[in-house]
Amino acid sequence: MRWKSDPLLVVEHLTMRFGGLVAVNDLSFEAGRGDITALIGPNGAGKTTVFNCVTGFYKPTEGRLALARTGVADKERIAALTRTGKRHDKAADGEIYLLERMPGHHIAWHARVARTFQNIRLFQGMTVLENLMVAHHNRLMLASGLTFLGLFGAPSYLAAEREAVDRAKYWLDRIGLMDRADDPAGELPYGAQRRLEIARAMCTDPVLLCLDEPAAGLNPRESAELNALLNMIRDEHNTSLLLIEHDMSVVMQISDHVVVLDYGTKISDGTPSEVRNDPKVIAAYLGVADEEELAEVEAEIGA
Amino acid sequence: MSLASTTAAGGDVGWARRLKDSAFAAVITLVLCIPIILFHADSDANTGQLKLFWRPVAVAVFVGLAFFGRLLVLTIQAAPKREKAAKVAKPVSAAVTQAITIGGLAFVVLYPPATIAMMGAGGALTPIDSYGIQILIYVMLGWGLNIVVGLAGLLDLGYVAFYAVGAYSYTLLATTFHLSFWICLPIAGILAATWGMILGFPVLRLRGDYLAIVTLAFGEIIRSVLVNWTDFSGGGAGISSIPKITFFGLVFADRPGGFDDYFGLDYSPIHGKVFLYYVILGLALITNFVTMRLRRLPIGRAWEALREDEVACRSLGLNTTNTKLTAFALGAFFGGLAGSFFAVRQGFVSPESFTFNESATILAIVVLGGMGSQIGVAFAAVFLIGGFELLRQMDWLKELMSYYFGIADFDPAQYRGLLFGLGMVVMMVVRPRGFVSTRAPSIFLKERKSVSGDLVKEGHG
Q1: In angstroms, what separates the C-alpha of A192 from chain B's closest C-alpha?
Q2: DSSP result, A190-238
Q3: Which of A105, A158, A171 to mutate to test the interface with B (most CBs of B within 10 A)?
Q4: Cβ contacts of residue A76 below 8 Å, gap of 6+?
Q5: Which residues of A touch B452 (CB under 8 A)?
Q6: Residue B92: pLDDT band by 50, 70, 90 thresholds?
Q7: B403 CA: distance to closest CA in chain A (Å)
Q8: Confidence (pLDDT) at B3
Q9: Are B435 and B370 in contact (CB under 8 A)?
Q10: Same CATH fold assignment for domains A1-112+207-303 and A113-204
């Protein structure tokens, strides 16, 4: 129950309307620090919309998204910060960001939330290494003195660049693409592109990594490798994960906490085993309304 | 369109098919020729009245050209197919590129002395002024626009606006405040960059066609202002007697205290031209050096990443607003420097020099060269601008036409649009991604492999 005791991300009353369509309706949940939190639900449940709100691609119609980059996401501190009208609050005991008030690139750079996309978005015409170098943009931009120092090859910039290359190499090694570092990203096989996108997001040094269907289109072996990679990220890099996934083997094996959405509202929230046995979840997935029928179906699938 | 698609789809085209295709091309040409070539209204030589002439022979020539030309193209395409495909796919190696770069650099540096040695001071005037300087101005403009279009992937159809801002900045500063060219040059660049930002802000949210239209409009706005704000810019008549360039305060003129007098040389106009040549060469090389350098810095990688995928850029914390604005501003800065040089070289500016046609030419150089490729852009500028000048200088062809064929008013330069269009069509078929279609990566671990143009995106435009 780390999401209750030490939450990293606190989502409260999140609502997103597109004209008359309510994609997300009054959604509240917490994601724990050091947890792998899975966001699941049938197609069109509003999972990607939640992601887009968290990562700043959409501005939520209503609601609050608070992220504690360090320290504890204390409810009272969040409420106090909200009243001040500021975007973030930095104190000795932690740094809190209100994501709904920040533009997308600030969320990635200051609040340290990284993401991947459902349809892979790599820089296809750039090499694998270049893709990872772009992820170091803000750090290198500062090191290059907003380009002016870099233009004259200042040693401080060169050192920063070397450091970025070393980090890129570390991740290339981790995802097994060291040999293909100088190949264009668009030429990689599908599974490798997925891994590269995760590595690229990790190069921004995030506290929260949002993965939109990372296992989509992977074969069972690649899927197992992905599980290992995600576990490694959580254990070794002080990064919590929030993932959308349809592949239940991935969800049930690696997640610590599962939030289930249906038609934009939360229908279940708990550990994987709790959620798996929740009648509402089974009904949402199998489309059963009747209690009796539900019992029959449950008996059939042996839940 | 249909012709192109049939050849693309059909692998081996038989003779019957080829003849049919050629006949089809001939019919289309005939239909097109009836309104534009068959009828010709001209004043009658004797009476001076407007009279309708028929030109069936000319139509027959065009139809014949279309038929046999098409047949030839199909026959060539049918023959050595495999070999050709393999040849095109092979990228140019790094060593070859380097050799071309060093050779080209040596050539452009030695060009003026070599021409003077070969043709004498009088004869070298045209090669240095009309070819050398003219081409280098467009090389620089092409490299400047390459930052915006080639690297950042933002289609800019109004680049000439910055060229105009640079030219008028120098003109007005020099004629009003009597500042020297060397002081005005950076000011003109900065003013143009400011205008680049001013254009950049409203178009930040636009993509593709919309972006192109707004930049096009921006170019026209600048020109209209220059035409109509007579008090400021002198209106359509332009501004003449702009101060000439000086060599550390020495003017290039036949008078005591001038450059030639000071160094004890006999006066020759070629000295001034050679100096101008080296100035524009220096400016162009600075443009190139800065661009090549920036490509390896985070800002350059951000431009290219922006061209590849803007959404992914935002997810990685890149400020896309700043990235776009810096691309616009830097492209405009170099355009402004080139404009300033244009004004000092011409000694006269008017809005006539800054029409959409110029924007289109510069964009054509960038596209023809291969978007993002520095060396390709340089070659395209030599090819296009050199070609235009060649047509303009073809006096022998004029004489030939009037002497043997009795065509008195033949002017080869009139055909530049036609040849330019044909060249573009041929390029589209042979090398759709420009002369240099591969992209050189900005950083590598073990080996610098060039990226195939098929993978590189064209950006939002």
Answers
A1: 17
A2: HHHHHHHHHHHHHTT--SEEEEESTTTT--HHHHHHHHHHHHHHHHHH-
A3: A105
A4: none
A5: 184
A6: low
A7: 56
A8: 45
A9: yes
A10: yes
Q: Is the dihedral of CA B271, B274, B276, B278 positive or negative?
A: negative
- Please give the Cα distance from B52 to A283 (Å, whole number): 83
Distance CA B154, CA B175 (A): 35
- Tell me how close the Cα of A120 comes to any Cα of chain B, in angstroms: 9
Residue B253 has pLDDT above 80, yes or no: no
pTM for the complete prediction?
A: 0.84
Between helices B15-33 and B2-9, what is the axis angle to 10°? 170
- Count CB atoms within 10 A of the CB of residue A278: 18
User: What's CA B258's distance to the chain center, in Å?
Assistant: 35
**Residue B227 has what pLDDT?**
92
Could you give the 3-state DSSP secondary structure of residue B220?
helix
What is the sign of the dihedral through the CA atoms of B264, B268, B273 and B274? negative
Going by pLDDT thresholds of 50, 70 and 90, the confidence category of residue B7 is very low
Residue B13: pLDDT over 70: no
Whether B4 has a pLDDT exceeding 70, the answer reads: no
Nearest-CA neighbor of A54 among A205, A193, A207, A194? A207
Helix B356-369 vs helix B134-146: angle between axes, to the nearest 10 degrees?
70
Chain A residue with Cα closest to B318? A105
The structural domains of chain A, with segments of one domain joined by +, span 1-112+207-303, 113-204
- The single-letter code of the amino acid at B277 is Y
| Contact criterion met (CB below 8 Å) for B342 and B353 | yes
Smallest CA–CA distance from A102 into chain B, residue: B317
Q: Does A126 reach chain B within 8 Å, measured CB to CB? A: yes
| Residue in B301, B315, B447 nearest the CB of A55 | B315
DSSP helix/strand/coil, A167: helix
pLDDT of residue B189: 95
The CATH homologous superfamily to which domain A1-112+207-303 belongs is: P-loop containing nucleotide triphosphate hydrolases (3.40.50.300)
Residues composing chain B: 461
- Selecting from B305, B311, B316 the residue whose C-beta is nearest the C-beta of A126 gives B305
pLDDT band of residue B138 (cuts 50, 70, 90) is very high
Neighbouring-strand partners of residue A37: A242, A257
> Which tokens is A94 given?
């932690």
Distance CA B269, CA A30 (A): 79
CA distance B299 to chain A (A): 7
- B110-129 CB burial, b ≥16 within 10 A, e <16: ebbeebbeeeeeeebbebbb
Q: Which amino acid is at B223?
A: R
CATH class of A113-204: alpha beta
Long-range contact list for A13-19, CB < 8 A, 24+ apart? Answer: A13/A62, A13/A63, A13/A64, A14/A50, A14/A53, A14/A60, A14/A62, A14/A63, A14/A64, A14/A65, A15/A60, A15/A61, A15/A62, A15/A63, A16/A46, A16/A49, A16/A50, A16/A53, A16/A58, A16/A60, A16/A61, A16/A264, A17/A61
Profile chain A (303 residues) by mean pLDDT over runs of 10 residues: 84 91 90 90 88 92 89 80 82 84 88 92 92 91 79 84 92 91 91 93 92 89 90 90 86 89 89 87 72 70 62
3-state secondary structure of A97: strand
- Contact predicate B208/B155, CB 8 Å: yes
ipTM of predicted complex: 0.87
Domain coordinates in residue numbering, chain B: 2-78, 111-393
Span B25-48, average pLDDT:
83
